[in-house]
Amino acid sequence: MFLGLDLGTSGLRAVLVSEDQDVIGASEQPLETAHPKAGWSEQDPDTWLRAMHAAAAELKDAHPKSWAALRGIGISGHMHGATMLDADGAVLRPCILWNDTRAHAEAADLDAAAQVRALSGNIVFPGFTAPKLIWTATHEPDVFARVAKVVQPKDYLTYALTGRIVSEMSDAAGTSWLDTGARDWSDRLLEAGGMRRDQMPDLVEGSAPAGTLQGDIAARWGVSDAVVVVGGGGDNAAAACGVGAMREGDGFVSLGTSGVLLAARDSYAPKPESAVHTFCHAIPGTWYQMGVILAATDSLNWLLRLLNMQPSDLAGLLGDHIGDPGRIRFLPYLSGERTPHNDSTIRGAMVGLEIGAGPKDLIHAVMEGVGFALRDNLEALRSTGASLDRVLAIGGGARSDYWVQLLATILNLPVDLPAKGEFGAALGAARLAICGVTDADPADVMTKPEIARTVEPIAAQVEAYESAYQHYRRLYPAIKGAAEG
């Protein structure tokens, strides 16, 4: 048996699977995020540990025989988090999360430093790890002086399980300390960020062993202390493993809290100025690129709260078909934006509001705006040489037929919907564990899910949505100029 853990921002998911990838059981444990100041986003790492142990206890109780046969663990998690440890391995402060923008000035300065983009393969975004440590050095110098190690959120779980401070390439690539092409820490990038190599975790590939369970953990969980914990993967790399997006031309679109358009790459082809992320994949010798928008379903949930509506109300209100583009344009920059703008200070807008607009018009505008932002991501990916002929849709927003139909038409790509089942980052993490323990070829393990159906672009409306998208593209500089004026 193999355990996949996915440490998300809002909760931890655990899946127990067999070597043949039959799902034996699953557990969900909620997590909360603190926002002490505007733009700040933090979590207490102890809550991750409590969630992990609660999930393990639930699976052990529900499936004792299968649980006792556990051989390997893979862990996925949200990227870019700054989890700072002292020389004794104790947490020094709450983890600064991926969607925290306090270090925007530090990110801009680091991004402008010599060789930083060339070596990391990426713009230094405010959410990345390195600028958060620079911010800490300035604003919390007593904390910074005690930093012995910095780990990513999922790697803190690995440390708790194994006693080893280890990371892997896909998560390390989101720190701005890794030479992403060479798949190793960069002395120049560390110097630019005011850090040292000895403060970094040891590196392994995501499908390679990172350690075995400590005796007290094995006893607590009722499993062997020979259980192997592998390197694992950052959340999107693990999700790609879960859906079999491993080679050139494979990709997916995720309509989650944030929105992601990901393309697997067989070679390293960064283009930082596009604001596309170029990261190592979780298996050796591969990379992936993705565009990221910071508020996808977050945008819809924001509007539904204002309208006092529930997601279950949408189907009856919107109907089965998308119709023509709306007259209202929504820019989904509620938390700033990454791709293609790299703008942590921009904020959202609705343009074209009129007195006759009702809830349906506003909801369509939000869904359409998220679709247009993802179209921006598609164009940015194409500028790097990435090729996508179709995408797989995952995430909570993909449950809306209306939204998927809208997205297919805006992207002008077929959108595949997977059959029901486990195919996310937790499964991807378990698949990495299977590879690490059994030496199986990732190509044999990380297969694509069964497709329930494919949503094709509505050919008669592609041109109209293309025209609406071009109008949308012209709005960002106008809104940016108005905000700065």
Automatic annotation (TrEMBL):
PROSITE patterns, A to Z? FGGY_KINASES_2
Q: Where does substrate bind?
A: M79, H80
Q: Which reaction does it catalyse?
A: D-xylulose + ATP = D-xylulose 5-phosphate + ADP + H(+)
Q: What Enzyme Commission number(s) appear in the record?
A: 2.7.1.17
Where does the record place the Carbohydrate kinase FGGY N-terminal domain?
Answer: 1-242
Question: Site: Important for activity. Where?
Answer: D6
Recorded GO molecular functions are: ATP binding; D-xylulokinase activity
Sequence ranges assigned to domain Carbohydrate kinase FGGY C-terminal in this UniProt record: 252-434
Give the active-site positions.
D235 (proton acceptor)
Q: Which PANTHER family match?
A: SUGAR KINASE, XYLULOSE KINASE
Q: Which family does it belong to?
A: Belongs to the FGGY kinase family.
Q: What does this protein do?
A: Catalyzes the phosphorylation of D-xylulose to D-xylulose 5-phosphate.
Q: What is the protein named?
A: Xylulose kinase
